[in-house]
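Pilot study result, target chain (92 residues):
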Amino acid sequence: MSRAFPTRTERERFVKTAAYRELMNLIDDVRQRTGFIAGATPTKSGKFVVRLPKSLHAALETEAAREGVSLNQLVVAKLAVQMSHLVAGQAS
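Predicted structure:
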């Protein structure tokens, strides 16, 4: 917000607008639908089941063992890397 409203006066003025209230309503709506609250644990469990071919599962287990991490840690790290590429517009 400091780029769009560089001075304190401009930020204070914006916070009082209908546009700001609408943005806050949209953010609240997303929080309600997803369970996401900044700095808090989401209300979603964070768990889901993925069925993999046995060969892929074995390869991931081997890599996790080689790296000295759990299968879960390896998969979460791999997903996080891919998500960061997607967010940055570098999907591979």
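One observation from the pilot: The chain has a mean pLDDT of 81. A full batch analysis is planned for the follow-on phase.
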